[in-house]
Amino acid sequence: MSRCPGCGQTRLFSSYLKVVPQCANCGAPVGLARADDAPPYFTIAIVAHVVIGGMLFVEKTYSPPLWVHAAIWLPLTLVMSLALLQPIKGATVGLMLKLGMLKQDIDE
Ligand SMILES: [Zn+2]
Question: Nearest 10 degrees: CA dihedral of 78, 82, 87, 90?
Answer without folding.
Answer: 130
